[in-house]
């Protein structure tokens, strides 16, 4: 399958500290979900920030659809940015408390008036109608459209954040611990929703979590990050194989115990 994202020998250190990421390389194909798992502090969120263009690497390259991301400037950078969107861990922090949720859902489309996602083609002239379609995709009915974030449950807020992430019909959605702030009972609903949306909209995901079970459920392949280095990359079905890296085996053991 064609690589959508190529990450090549990425390294980053903050100041004189030891590197947060060292020589990290991987690819994500079109339509693939790559799970990224690692302990707290292993560098997962930093890697996400690099892919989103929020940080610059000291060394290495990020290539999106054949284009070198960090070489881009101006309009070309703006065009590339819309292809990669993100859903963060805490929807309360990522939603504007002063906006009704329908406005938050379509905000990115206001910054990119030229973008017409296929699923919004019939309603592009009305922000409110676009919001209704988007929110419906994530299971938020029109009766909730005018609510503010504080009037929703955590799971509903994360659904709105997902709607916003999808609004520009990105190629890649970076999901950075998208269920970690939610009740266990709600986590499975959000994972199922993300899976359905991935198939429906033919998205690729970088799915980041410290929870092996969620990563295994979501991902086609799994990459294991330890102290800023990728120590293991494998297809999800091979998680329990004998030839896994010792660190991966330790993580599996910890879950089973
Ligand atoms: N802006 C920064 N300045 C200095 N150090 C940083 C900065 N951001 C992250 N770090 C350090 O980089 C390391 C990796 O952090 P990162 O947030 O990427 O890890 P993580 O795997 O996402 O952890 P968690 O699962 O706890 O979110 C940590 O030691 C962190 O303290």
TrEMBL record:
The molecular function terms in GO held by this entry are: ATP binding
Q: Where are the transmembrane segments?
A: none
Q: Where is the ABC transporter domain?
A: 5-252
Q: Which keywords does this Swiss-Prot/TrEMBL entry list?
A: ATP-binding, Nucleotide-binding, Transport
InterPro entries, per database record: AAA+_ATPase, ABC_transp_ATP-bind, ABC_transporter-like_ATP-bd, ABC_transporter-like_CS, P-loop_NTPase
Which Pfam families does UniProt cross-reference here? ABC_tran
The record's similarity note reads: Belongs to the ABC transporter superfamily.
What this protein is called in its record is Peptide/nickel transport system ATP-binding protein
> Source species, please?
Desmospora profundinema
Lineage, please? Bacteria, Bacillati, Bacillota, Bacilli, Bacillales
């Amino acid at each position: 399958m064609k690589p959508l994202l190529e990450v090549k020998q990425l390294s980053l250190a903050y100041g004189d500290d030891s590197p947060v990421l060292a020589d990290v390389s991987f690819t994500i194909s079109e339509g693939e979900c790559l799970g990224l798992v690692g302990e707290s502090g292993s560098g997962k969120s930093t890697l996400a920030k690099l892919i989103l263009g929020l940080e610059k690497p000291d060394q290495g390259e990020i290539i999106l659809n054949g284009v070198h991301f960090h070489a881009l400037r101006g309009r070309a950078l703006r065009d590339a940015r819309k292809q990669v969107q993100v859903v963060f861990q805490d929807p309360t922090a990522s939603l504007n408390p002063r906006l009704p949720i329908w406005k938050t859902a379509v905000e990115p489309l206001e910054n990119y008036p030229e973008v017409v996602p296929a699923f919004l083609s019939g309603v592009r002239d009305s922000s409110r109608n676009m919001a209704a379609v988007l929110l419906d995709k994530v299971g938020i009915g029109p009766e909730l459209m005018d609510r503010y974030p504080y009037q929703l449950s955590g799971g509903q807020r994360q659904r709105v954040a997902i709607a916003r992430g999808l609004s520009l019909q990105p190629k890649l959605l970076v999901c950075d611990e998208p269920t970690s702030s939610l009740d266990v009972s709600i986590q499975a609903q959000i994972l199922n929703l993300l899976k359905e949306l991935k198939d429906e909209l033919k998205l690729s995901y970088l799915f980041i979590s410290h929870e092996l079970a969620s990563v295994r459920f979501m991902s086609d392949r799994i990459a294991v990050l330890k102290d800023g280095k990728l120590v293991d990359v494998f297809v999800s079905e091979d998680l329990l194989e004998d030839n896994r890296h010792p660190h991966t085996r330790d993580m599996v053991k910890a879950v089973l115990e």
